[in-house]
Amino acid sequence: MKGYEIYSSLQVPKNSKIIVRLDGRSFHSLARDLKLEKPYDERFYEVMAKVCEDLFKEFSPIFVYTFSDEISLLLDKIPFEGRIEKINSVIASFAASSFVMHYDTQFKKPPAFDSRVIPIGDDDVLKYFKWRQDESWRNCVNSHGISYLKSIHSNSEANDEINGMSLSDVHELLFENGINLNNVETYKKRGIAVYRKNREVVGYNKKEKINQTSYRSYVFTDWEIPIFNMEFFTEIGVIK
Ligand SMILES: Nc1nc2c(ncn2[C@@H]2O[C@H](COP(=O)(O)OP(=O)(O)OP(=O)(O)O)[C@@H](O)[C@H]2O)c(=O)[nH]1
Ligand SMILES: [Mg+2]
């Protein structure tokens, strides 16, 4: 019977980096069930950040990025001998359990995440995360836009109107009506990242009788990330 498990040998190319991207399944309905605030629900974002921290501690990625209901993990040490079925199923189910553990609420349905594996070369890491961060910005503009339009029109009129508008049209409309996205919190525009940072530790060396400085790394959740650029990724050691 083992012979029927024909996909189990599918593996990530050796010595490569991968991105695992998770996305909440039908989180549109989950948002409705949990009565999440629109356009942004702070508690939901706090839980997603906690899920990222759990993923970071469990699977040792070098960088995790989240916005809305998606999470990207950049891994340089590939778990489960690179077996794609294992990577996708374990990481997605771990994320869903973590989500439920941190969300102190009664769910109508068990939340789930889908997962995909993307092999990536060093040259494309910045491009990938810029792509997702652009999507975060689009999401920020459009979700503020739709919330504003629904406050003055019926739901279907609001949906029709926003569908015919470009991103800059929506931005302009919001600005003209006193909603300046420059004043919106950074995480809503740019997302949240989790990565390792170094902390300076001063310890007393008894033998030498001197104070000595060393560095310890710790997991840092960054709610104030910049617009992604090469300097940021090299500074935090994600791109050499
Ligand atoms: N109200 C509210 N909803 C949110 C928030 N963040 C994410 N969402 C919801 O999550 C959805 C994420 O979009 P998608 O992943 O495209 O939609 P989905 O319903 O999850 O569908 P699939 O991913 O295809 O299963 C958004 O459409 C919102 O409905 C939030 O802060 N507040
Ligand atoms: Mg989704």
Describe this structure in words.
This protein is of the alpha+beta class and 240 residues long. The chain has a domain at 9-122 and 185-189: tRNA(His) guanylyltransferase (Thg1) (Alpha-Beta Plaits), CATH 3.30.70.3000. The protein has 8 helices and 6 strands, in the order βααββαβααααββα. The protein has helices spanning 27-33, 42-59, 84-102, 122-152, 155-163, 167-176, 186-190, 230-235, and strands at 17-24, 63-67, 70-75, 113-120, 192-205, 210-222. The chain has a 6-stranded antiparallel sheet with strand order 4-1-3-2-5-6, with helices on both faces. The chain is globular and about 70 Å long. The chain binds guanosine-5'-triphosphate and magnesium ion. Guanosine-5'-triphosphate is lined by residues 23-28, 31, 36-38, 40-41, 44, 68-69.
Q: Which features would summarize this protein structure in a list?
A:
6 strands; alpha+beta; binds magnesium ion; globular; single chain; Alpha-Beta Plaits; 240 residues; binds guanosine-5'-triphosphate; 6-stranded antiparallel β-sheet; 8 helices
